Amino acid sequence: MAQAQQAELEVDVVIVGAGPAGLSAATALVAAGRSVAVLEARDRVGGRTWTDVVDGAMLEIGGQWVSPHQTVLLETIEALGLETFPRHRDGESVYVDGGRAVRFTGDFPIAPETATEVDRLVAVIEALVAEVDPEAPWAHPRARELDTVSFEAWLAGQTDDTAAAHLVALFIGPAMLTKPSHAFSTLQALLMAASADGFANLLDEDEILDRRVVGGMQRVSERMAEELGDAVRLGASVRRIERGDDAVTVVAHGVVARGRRVIVAVPPNLITRIDVQPPLPRRQHQLHQHLSLGIVIKVHAVYDRPFWRDAGLSGTGFGPHELVHELYDNTNHEDARGTLVGFVSDEHADEAFRWSDEERRERVLASIARYLGPEALEPVVYYESDWGSEEWTRGAYAASYDLGGLHRYGADQRQPVGPIHWACSDYAGRGYQHVDGAIRSGRQAAADVLERLQP
Protein backbone atom coordinates (compact mmCIF):
# COMPACT_ATOMS: atom_id res chain seq x y z
CA MET A 1 0.00 0.00 0.00
CA ALA A 2 1.32 3.40 -0.96
CA GLN A 3 1.66 6.18 1.55
CA ALA A 4 -0.04 9.42 0.48
CA GLN A 5 2.14 11.77 -1.54
CA GLN A 6 1.51 14.62 -3.97
CA ALA A 7 -0.09 12.95 -6.94
CA GLU A 8 -2.87 13.23 -9.50
CA LEU A 9 -4.94 10.16 -10.32
CA GLU A 10 -7.47 9.33 -13.02
CA VAL A 11 -9.72 6.38 -12.17
CA ASP A 12 -13.25 5.19 -12.76
CA VAL A 13 -14.29 5.42 -9.10
CA VAL A 14 -12.83 7.23 -6.11
CA ILE A 15 -13.57 5.76 -2.68
CA VAL A 16 -13.32 7.80 0.50
CA GLY A 17 -12.46 5.58 3.47
CA ALA A 18 -10.58 2.29 3.78
CA GLY A 19 -12.77 0.55 6.33
CA PRO A 20 -14.64 -2.67 5.53
CA ALA A 21 -17.31 -0.79 3.56
CA GLY A 22 -14.93 1.16 1.33
CA LEU A 23 -12.60 -1.76 0.76
CA SER A 24 -15.50 -4.09 -0.05
CA ALA A 25 -16.79 -1.60 -2.60
CA ALA A 26 -13.32 -1.28 -4.11
CA THR A 27 -12.88 -5.05 -4.26
CA ALA A 28 -16.20 -5.49 -6.09
CA LEU A 29 -15.41 -2.71 -8.56
CA VAL A 30 -11.95 -4.07 -9.36
CA ALA A 31 -13.45 -7.54 -9.87
CA ALA A 32 -15.77 -5.95 -12.43
CA GLY A 33 -12.82 -4.46 -14.31
CA ARG A 34 -13.03 -0.90 -12.98
CA SER A 35 -10.13 1.19 -11.70
CA VAL A 36 -10.31 2.68 -8.20
CA ALA A 37 -8.48 4.94 -5.80
CA VAL A 38 -9.17 4.41 -2.10
CA LEU A 39 -8.29 7.46 0.00
CA GLU A 40 -7.90 6.90 3.75
CA ALA A 41 -7.25 9.66 6.29
CA ARG A 42 -5.65 7.36 8.86
CA ASP A 43 -2.23 5.73 8.69
CA ARG A 44 -3.94 2.33 8.64
CA VAL A 45 -6.89 0.56 7.06
CA GLY A 46 -9.80 -0.96 8.96
CA GLY A 47 -11.90 2.01 10.05
CA ARG A 48 -13.64 1.08 13.30
CA THR A 49 -11.83 -2.26 13.39
CA TRP A 50 -8.35 -1.97 14.80
CA THR A 51 -6.06 -4.61 16.25
CA ASP A 52 -3.00 -3.23 18.03
CA VAL A 53 -0.32 -4.31 20.49
CA VAL A 54 -0.47 -2.41 23.79
CA ASP A 55 2.25 -3.06 26.37
CA GLY A 56 2.97 -6.39 24.71
CA ALA A 57 -0.67 -7.52 24.55
CA MET A 58 -2.66 -7.85 21.33
CA LEU A 59 -5.96 -6.04 21.78
CA GLU A 60 -8.96 -5.65 19.51
CA ILE A 61 -9.52 -1.97 20.09
CA GLY A 62 -12.51 -1.80 17.77
CA GLY A 63 -15.16 -4.16 16.39
CA GLN A 64 -14.34 -7.83 16.73
CA TRP A 65 -17.31 -10.22 16.90
CA VAL A 66 -18.57 -12.64 14.26
CA SER A 67 -22.12 -14.01 14.56
CA PRO A 68 -23.70 -17.01 12.80
CA HIS A 69 -26.32 -14.82 11.10
CA GLN A 70 -23.60 -12.56 9.64
CA THR A 71 -23.31 -14.70 6.55
CA VAL A 72 -21.65 -12.13 4.29
CA LEU A 73 -18.88 -11.53 6.81
CA LEU A 74 -18.37 -15.27 7.25
CA GLU A 75 -18.14 -15.75 3.47
CA THR A 76 -15.64 -12.88 3.24
CA ILE A 77 -13.47 -14.29 6.01
CA GLU A 78 -13.33 -17.64 4.24
CA ALA A 79 -12.61 -16.07 0.83
CA LEU A 80 -9.71 -14.09 2.33
CA GLY A 81 -8.17 -17.25 3.79
CA LEU A 82 -8.70 -16.17 7.39
CA GLU A 83 -9.81 -18.35 10.30
CA THR A 84 -12.08 -17.82 13.28
CA PHE A 85 -12.14 -19.23 16.79
CA PRO A 86 -14.97 -19.42 19.34
CA ARG A 87 -15.29 -17.12 22.31
CA HIS A 88 -14.54 -18.98 25.52
CA ARG A 89 -17.80 -19.61 27.35
CA ASP A 90 -17.30 -22.78 29.41
CA GLY A 91 -18.27 -22.39 33.05
CA GLU A 92 -20.79 -20.36 34.98
CA SER A 93 -21.69 -16.75 34.26
CA VAL A 94 -22.14 -14.09 36.95
CA TYR A 95 -25.05 -11.72 37.47
CA VAL A 96 -24.47 -8.70 39.73
CA ASP A 97 -27.32 -6.64 41.12
CA GLY A 98 -27.10 -4.41 44.15
CA GLY A 99 -23.48 -5.48 44.64
CA ARG A 100 -24.47 -9.14 45.09
CA ALA A 101 -22.89 -11.59 42.66
CA VAL A 102 -24.83 -14.72 41.71
CA ARG A 103 -23.34 -17.52 39.61
CA PHE A 104 -25.67 -19.01 37.04
CA THR A 105 -26.09 -20.95 33.83
CA GLY A 106 -28.94 -20.44 31.42
CA ASP A 107 -31.43 -17.67 32.22
CA PHE A 108 -30.64 -14.67 34.42
CA PRO A 109 -31.17 -15.34 38.15
CA ILE A 110 -33.90 -12.75 38.56
CA ALA A 111 -37.29 -12.84 40.28
CA PRO A 112 -39.60 -15.32 38.53
CA GLU A 113 -42.28 -12.70 37.95
CA THR A 114 -39.72 -10.39 36.33
CA ALA A 115 -38.39 -13.22 34.17
CA THR A 116 -41.94 -13.97 33.01
CA GLU A 117 -42.49 -10.30 32.19
CA VAL A 118 -39.21 -10.11 30.25
CA ASP A 119 -40.34 -13.10 28.18
CA ARG A 120 -43.69 -11.42 27.51
CA LEU A 121 -42.03 -8.14 26.45
CA VAL A 122 -39.63 -9.99 24.18
CA ALA A 123 -42.58 -11.74 22.51
CA VAL A 124 -44.29 -8.38 21.91
CA ILE A 125 -41.08 -6.93 20.45
CA GLU A 126 -40.46 -9.98 18.26
CA ALA A 127 -43.97 -9.67 16.80
CA LEU A 128 -43.17 -6.08 15.78
CA VAL A 129 -39.71 -7.01 14.53
CA ALA A 130 -41.29 -9.57 12.21
CA GLU A 131 -43.18 -6.70 10.53
CA VAL A 132 -40.08 -4.52 10.02
CA ASP A 133 -37.93 -4.72 6.91
CA PRO A 134 -34.41 -3.85 8.10
CA GLU A 135 -33.68 -2.40 4.66
CA ALA A 136 -36.64 -0.01 4.95
CA PRO A 137 -38.01 0.32 8.51
CA TRP A 138 -39.54 3.67 7.55
CA ALA A 139 -41.97 1.75 5.30
CA HIS A 140 -43.73 0.15 8.30
CA PRO A 141 -47.36 1.34 8.40
CA ARG A 142 -46.87 2.58 11.98
CA ALA A 143 -43.40 4.01 11.34
CA ARG A 144 -44.21 7.55 12.48
CA GLU A 145 -45.96 6.36 15.62
CA LEU A 146 -43.08 4.04 16.58
CA ASP A 147 -40.45 6.61 15.66
CA THR A 148 -41.84 9.45 17.77
CA VAL A 149 -41.86 7.59 21.09
CA SER A 150 -38.66 6.73 22.91
CA PHE A 151 -37.91 3.08 23.58
CA GLU A 152 -37.92 3.87 27.31
CA ALA A 153 -41.37 5.45 27.14
CA TRP A 154 -42.73 2.66 24.95
CA LEU A 155 -41.53 0.01 27.40
CA ALA A 156 -43.05 1.95 30.30
CA GLY A 157 -46.36 1.83 28.46
CA GLN A 158 -46.08 -1.92 28.04
CA THR A 159 -45.32 -2.95 31.63
CA ASP A 160 -45.35 -1.86 35.26
CA ASP A 161 -42.32 -4.04 36.00
CA THR A 162 -39.49 -1.49 35.88
CA ALA A 163 -36.84 -4.17 36.36
CA ALA A 164 -38.10 -6.07 33.32
CA ALA A 165 -38.23 -2.89 31.24
CA HIS A 166 -34.72 -1.94 32.29
CA LEU A 167 -33.33 -5.36 31.35
CA VAL A 168 -34.96 -5.32 27.92
CA ALA A 169 -33.74 -1.78 27.26
CA LEU A 170 -30.20 -2.76 28.26
CA PHE A 171 -29.77 -5.01 25.24
CA ILE A 172 -30.61 -2.26 22.76
CA GLY A 173 -29.44 0.95 24.44
CA PRO A 174 -26.16 0.54 26.36
CA ALA A 175 -25.28 -2.77 24.70
CA MET A 176 -25.81 -1.88 21.04
CA LEU A 177 -26.66 1.76 20.29
CA THR A 178 -24.58 2.97 23.29
CA LYS A 179 -27.22 5.56 24.10
CA PRO A 180 -29.73 5.75 26.96
CA SER A 181 -33.11 4.33 25.95
CA HIS A 182 -34.82 7.72 26.26
CA ALA A 183 -32.60 9.04 23.43
CA PHE A 184 -33.72 6.81 20.56
CA SER A 185 -37.05 5.69 19.20
CA THR A 186 -38.87 2.39 19.33
CA LEU A 187 -38.54 2.16 15.53
CA GLN A 188 -34.76 2.53 15.88
CA ALA A 189 -34.80 -0.29 18.45
CA LEU A 190 -36.82 -2.48 16.09
CA LEU A 191 -34.34 -1.79 13.29
CA MET A 192 -31.50 -2.87 15.57
CA ALA A 193 -33.30 -6.13 16.32
CA ALA A 194 -34.42 -6.77 12.73
CA SER A 195 -30.89 -6.18 11.46
CA ALA A 196 -29.74 -9.14 13.60
CA ASP A 197 -32.57 -11.42 12.45
CA GLY A 198 -34.51 -10.94 15.68
CA PHE A 199 -34.40 -9.48 19.16
CA ALA A 200 -33.63 -12.91 20.59
CA ASN A 201 -30.25 -12.82 18.85
CA LEU A 202 -29.37 -9.62 20.73
CA LEU A 203 -30.30 -11.28 24.02
CA ASP A 204 -28.17 -14.36 23.32
CA GLU A 205 -24.47 -13.61 23.85
CA ASP A 206 -23.63 -17.01 22.38
CA GLU A 207 -25.16 -15.79 19.11
CA ILE A 208 -24.19 -12.14 18.86
CA LEU A 209 -20.72 -12.67 20.38
CA ASP A 210 -19.97 -16.07 18.90
CA ARG A 211 -16.52 -16.00 17.30
CA ARG A 212 -13.48 -13.86 16.55
CA VAL A 213 -11.00 -13.70 13.70
CA VAL A 214 -7.60 -15.23 14.38
CA GLY A 215 -5.25 -12.24 14.36
CA GLY A 216 -8.08 -9.77 14.86
CA MET A 217 -11.00 -8.39 12.84
CA GLN A 218 -8.77 -5.74 11.24
CA ARG A 219 -7.20 -8.59 9.26
CA VAL A 220 -10.33 -8.59 7.08
CA SER A 221 -9.58 -5.05 5.92
CA GLU A 222 -5.85 -5.63 5.76
CA ARG A 223 -6.28 -8.63 3.45
CA MET A 224 -8.60 -6.71 1.14
CA ALA A 225 -6.18 -3.79 1.08
CA GLU A 226 -3.27 -6.11 0.28
CA GLU A 227 -5.13 -7.39 -2.76
CA LEU A 228 -5.91 -3.83 -3.89
CA GLY A 229 -2.24 -2.82 -3.56
CA ASP A 230 -1.29 0.74 -4.54
CA ALA A 231 -4.92 1.66 -5.14
CA VAL A 232 -5.10 2.28 -1.36
CA ARG A 233 -3.51 5.52 -0.20
CA LEU A 234 -3.06 6.21 3.51
CA GLY A 235 -2.76 9.59 5.17
CA ALA A 236 -4.99 11.04 2.46
CA SER A 237 -7.69 12.90 4.37
CA VAL A 238 -10.35 14.11 1.95
CA ARG A 239 -11.18 17.79 2.24
CA ARG A 240 -13.22 18.58 -0.87
CA ILE A 241 -15.42 16.87 -3.46
CA GLU A 242 -16.28 18.75 -6.64
CA ARG A 243 -19.16 17.10 -8.45
CA GLY A 244 -20.56 17.38 -11.92
CA ASP A 245 -23.23 15.37 -13.72
CA ASP A 246 -20.99 12.36 -14.31
CA ALA A 247 -17.61 13.36 -12.92
CA VAL A 248 -15.95 14.08 -9.61
CA THR A 249 -12.73 15.61 -8.41
CA VAL A 250 -11.70 14.55 -4.92
CA VAL A 251 -9.09 16.69 -3.22
CA ALA A 252 -7.23 15.04 -0.35
CA HIS A 253 -4.03 15.57 1.55
CA GLY A 254 -1.26 14.83 -0.95
CA VAL A 255 -3.48 13.65 -3.80
CA VAL A 256 -6.13 14.79 -6.25
CA ALA A 257 -8.22 11.96 -7.69
CA ARG A 258 -10.61 12.33 -10.60
CA GLY A 259 -13.25 9.83 -11.58
CA ARG A 260 -16.76 9.34 -12.87
CA ARG A 261 -18.17 8.38 -9.47
CA VAL A 262 -17.21 8.59 -5.80
CA ILE A 263 -18.29 6.35 -2.93
CA VAL A 264 -18.11 8.10 0.45
CA ALA A 265 -17.56 5.29 2.96
CA VAL A 266 -17.13 7.08 6.28
CA PRO A 267 -19.40 7.46 9.33
CA PRO A 268 -22.18 9.98 8.56
CA ASN A 269 -21.07 12.33 11.33
CA LEU A 270 -17.84 12.93 9.35
CA ILE A 271 -19.48 13.71 6.00
CA THR A 272 -20.04 17.34 6.95
CA ARG A 273 -16.27 17.76 7.35
CA ILE A 274 -15.96 17.38 3.58
CA ASP A 275 -16.56 20.50 1.50
CA VAL A 276 -18.89 19.31 -1.26
CA GLN A 277 -19.39 21.63 -4.23
CA PRO A 278 -22.04 22.23 -5.35
CA PRO A 279 -23.33 21.66 -1.82
CA LEU A 280 -25.38 18.60 -0.94
CA PRO A 281 -29.17 19.02 -1.09
CA ARG A 282 -31.18 20.22 1.89
CA ARG A 283 -32.41 16.69 2.69
CA GLN A 284 -28.86 15.42 3.08
CA HIS A 285 -27.93 18.28 5.40
CA GLN A 286 -31.01 17.68 7.53
CA LEU A 287 -30.36 13.93 7.58
CA HIS A 288 -26.84 14.40 8.92
CA GLN A 289 -28.09 16.74 11.64
CA HIS A 290 -30.44 14.06 12.97
CA LEU A 291 -27.77 11.33 13.19
CA SER A 292 -25.25 10.87 15.97
CA LEU A 293 -22.97 8.20 17.38
CA GLY A 294 -23.21 6.98 20.93
CA ILE A 295 -20.40 6.66 23.45
CA VAL A 296 -18.79 3.63 25.04
CA ILE A 297 -15.55 2.75 26.81
CA LYS A 298 -14.33 -0.67 25.78
CA VAL A 299 -12.15 -1.85 28.65
CA HIS A 300 -9.37 -4.41 28.15
CA ALA A 301 -7.78 -6.11 31.16
CA VAL A 302 -5.03 -8.68 30.57
CA TYR A 303 -3.85 -11.11 33.29
CA ASP A 304 -0.99 -13.56 33.46
CA ARG A 305 -3.57 -16.35 33.22
CA PRO A 306 -7.37 -16.62 32.88
CA PHE A 307 -7.81 -17.01 36.64
CA TRP A 308 -11.62 -17.04 36.47
CA ARG A 309 -11.56 -20.37 34.66
CA ASP A 310 -9.86 -21.97 37.70
CA ALA A 311 -12.95 -20.98 39.68
CA GLY A 312 -15.30 -22.57 37.15
CA LEU A 313 -16.35 -19.23 35.67
CA SER A 314 -16.77 -18.43 31.98
CA GLY A 315 -15.72 -14.80 32.34
CA THR A 316 -19.18 -13.68 31.22
CA GLY A 317 -20.91 -11.20 33.49
CA PHE A 318 -24.00 -9.00 33.42
CA GLY A 319 -24.92 -6.20 35.80
CA PRO A 320 -27.82 -3.96 34.79
CA HIS A 321 -26.78 -1.32 37.33
CA GLU A 322 -23.02 -1.90 37.27
CA LEU A 323 -20.48 0.54 35.85
CA VAL A 324 -19.26 -2.34 33.67
CA HIS A 325 -22.62 -3.68 32.56
CA GLU A 326 -21.21 -6.49 30.37
CA LEU A 327 -18.06 -8.59 30.76
CA TYR A 328 -16.60 -11.37 28.59
CA ASP A 329 -13.56 -13.60 28.29
CA ASN A 330 -11.65 -12.07 25.38
CA THR A 331 -8.54 -14.23 25.52
CA ASN A 332 -6.67 -14.34 22.22
CA HIS A 333 -6.31 -17.47 20.14
CA GLU A 334 -3.76 -19.85 21.71
CA ASP A 335 -2.67 -17.22 24.26
CA ALA A 336 -1.68 -18.46 27.73
CA ARG A 337 -2.63 -15.13 29.25
CA GLY A 338 -6.23 -14.26 30.05
CA THR A 339 -7.98 -11.19 28.66
CA LEU A 340 -11.28 -9.70 29.75
CA VAL A 341 -13.29 -7.13 27.85
CA GLY A 342 -15.94 -5.00 29.51
CA PHE A 343 -18.15 -2.12 28.44
CA VAL A 344 -19.07 1.20 30.06
CA SER A 345 -21.77 2.85 27.97
CA ASP A 346 -23.85 5.99 27.45
CA GLU A 347 -24.47 7.99 30.65
CA HIS A 348 -22.10 5.78 32.67
CA ALA A 349 -19.37 6.65 30.16
CA ASP A 350 -20.21 10.34 30.43
CA GLU A 351 -19.68 10.16 34.17
CA ALA A 352 -16.56 7.99 33.92
CA PHE A 353 -14.82 10.51 31.68
CA ARG A 354 -15.23 13.17 34.37
CA TRP A 355 -12.94 11.15 36.63
CA SER A 356 -9.16 11.17 36.48
CA ASP A 357 -7.52 8.32 34.59
CA GLU A 358 -6.45 6.78 37.89
CA GLU A 359 -9.90 6.99 39.47
CA ARG A 360 -11.61 5.64 36.35
CA ARG A 361 -9.25 2.66 36.22
CA GLU A 362 -9.81 1.98 39.93
CA ARG A 363 -13.60 2.13 39.64
CA VAL A 364 -13.71 0.03 36.46
CA LEU A 365 -11.55 -2.70 37.95
CA ALA A 366 -13.61 -2.62 41.15
CA SER A 367 -16.70 -3.24 39.04
CA ILE A 368 -15.02 -6.17 37.27
CA ALA A 369 -13.95 -7.54 40.67
CA ARG A 370 -17.57 -7.64 41.79
CA TYR A 371 -18.06 -10.24 39.07
CA LEU A 372 -14.84 -12.25 39.35
CA GLY A 373 -13.23 -11.52 42.68
CA PRO A 374 -10.19 -9.55 43.92
CA GLU A 375 -7.71 -11.03 41.42
CA ALA A 376 -9.41 -8.84 38.80
CA LEU A 377 -7.94 -5.76 40.51
CA GLU A 378 -4.38 -6.50 39.31
CA PRO A 379 -4.15 -6.83 35.52
CA VAL A 380 -0.74 -6.81 33.86
CA VAL A 381 -2.15 -4.66 31.04
CA TYR A 382 -5.08 -2.24 31.25
CA TYR A 383 -6.36 -0.24 28.29
CA GLU A 384 -9.47 1.77 27.42
CA SER A 385 -10.72 2.12 23.85
CA ASP A 386 -12.16 5.61 23.52
CA TRP A 387 -13.53 6.02 20.00
CA GLY A 388 -15.22 9.27 20.92
CA SER A 389 -11.81 10.94 20.94
CA GLU A 390 -10.55 9.22 17.78
CA GLU A 391 -10.13 11.89 15.09
CA TRP A 392 -11.72 10.00 12.21
CA THR A 393 -14.59 8.35 14.11
CA ARG A 394 -15.72 10.43 17.11
CA GLY A 395 -18.13 7.96 18.64
CA ALA A 396 -19.21 4.31 18.83
CA TYR A 397 -20.40 1.93 17.67
CA ALA A 398 -22.47 3.45 14.89
CA ALA A 399 -24.80 6.33 14.16
CA SER A 400 -28.49 6.24 15.04
CA TYR A 401 -31.26 8.79 14.60
CA ASP A 402 -32.78 11.03 17.22
CA LEU A 403 -36.49 10.76 17.96
CA GLY A 404 -38.46 10.97 14.74
CA GLY A 405 -35.43 11.07 12.48
CA LEU A 406 -35.49 7.52 11.10
CA HIS A 407 -38.91 7.65 9.46
CA ARG A 408 -38.31 11.20 8.15
CA TYR A 409 -34.87 10.78 6.63
CA GLY A 410 -33.99 7.08 6.54
CA ALA A 411 -35.14 6.60 2.95
CA ASP A 412 -32.68 9.30 1.83
CA GLN A 413 -29.57 7.99 3.55
CA ARG A 414 -28.41 5.67 0.75
CA GLN A 415 -29.72 7.73 -2.18
CA PRO A 416 -26.94 8.90 -4.54
CA VAL A 417 -26.48 12.62 -5.03
CA GLY A 418 -25.42 12.93 -8.65
CA PRO A 419 -22.13 11.01 -8.88
CA ILE A 420 -21.82 10.64 -5.07
CA HIS A 421 -22.74 7.30 -3.48
CA TRP A 422 -22.73 6.29 0.19
CA ALA A 423 -21.55 3.18 2.04
CA CYS A 424 -21.06 2.44 5.73
CA SER A 425 -22.28 0.10 8.44
CA ASP A 426 -24.36 2.99 9.81
CA TYR A 427 -26.56 2.88 6.70
CA ALA A 428 -26.81 -0.91 6.49
CA GLY A 429 -30.09 -2.75 6.97
CA ARG A 430 -29.05 -6.31 7.68
CA GLY A 431 -25.85 -6.22 9.68
CA TYR A 432 -26.47 -2.63 10.79
CA GLN A 433 -23.50 -1.26 12.79
CA HIS A 434 -21.47 -4.46 12.27
CA VAL A 435 -18.70 -5.44 9.85
CA ASP A 436 -21.20 -7.69 8.09
CA GLY A 437 -23.37 -4.65 7.36
CA ALA A 438 -20.37 -2.61 6.25
CA ILE A 439 -19.46 -5.25 3.66
CA ARG A 440 -23.08 -5.49 2.47
CA SER A 441 -23.26 -1.71 2.19
CA GLY A 442 -19.99 -1.50 0.25
CA ARG A 443 -21.07 -4.18 -2.20
CA GLN A 444 -24.45 -2.52 -2.75
CA ALA A 445 -22.81 0.84 -3.42
CA ALA A 446 -20.47 -0.83 -5.92
CA ALA A 447 -23.43 -2.48 -7.66
CA ASP A 448 -25.21 0.89 -7.91
CA VAL A 449 -22.09 2.51 -9.35
CA LEU A 450 -21.59 -0.27 -11.90
CA GLU A 451 -25.19 0.09 -13.06
CA ARG A 452 -24.70 3.81 -13.66
CA LEU A 453 -21.33 3.34 -15.38
CA GLN A 454 -22.87 1.17 -18.08
CA PRO A 455 -22.19 0.71 -20.89
From TrEMBL:
<feature type="binding site">
    <location>
        <position position="238"/>
    </location>
    <ligand>
        <name>FAD</name>
    </ligand>
</feature>
<feature type="domain" description="Amine oxidase">
    <location>
        <begin position="21"/>
        <end position="450"/>
    </location>
</feature>
<comment type="similarity">
    <text>Belongs to the flavin monoamine oxidase family.</text>
</comment>
<dbReference type="InterPro" id="IPR002937">
    <property type="entry name" value="Amino_oxidase"/>
</dbReference>
<feature type="binding site">
    <location>
        <position position="343"/>
    </location>
    <ligand>
        <name>substrate</name>
    </ligand>
</feature>
<dbReference type="GO" id="GO:0016491">
    <property type="term" value="F:oxidoreductase activity"/>
</dbReference>
<dbReference type="InterPro" id="IPR050703">
    <property type="entry name" value="Flavin_MAO"/>
</dbReference>
<keyword id="KW-0560">Oxidoreductase</keyword>
<dbReference type="Pfam" id="PF01593">
    <property type="entry name" value="Amino_oxidase"/>
</dbReference>
<protein>
    <submittedName>
        <fullName>FAD-dependent oxidoreductase</fullName>
    </submittedName>
</protein>
<dbReference type="InterPro" id="IPR036188">
    <property type="entry name" value="FAD/NAD-bd_sf"/>
</dbReference>
<feature type="binding site">
    <location>
        <begin position="40"/>
        <end position="41"/>
    </location>
    <ligand>
        <name>FAD</name>
    </ligand>
</feature>
<dbReference type="InterPro" id="IPR001613">
    <property type="entry name" value="Flavin_amine_oxidase"/>
</dbReference>
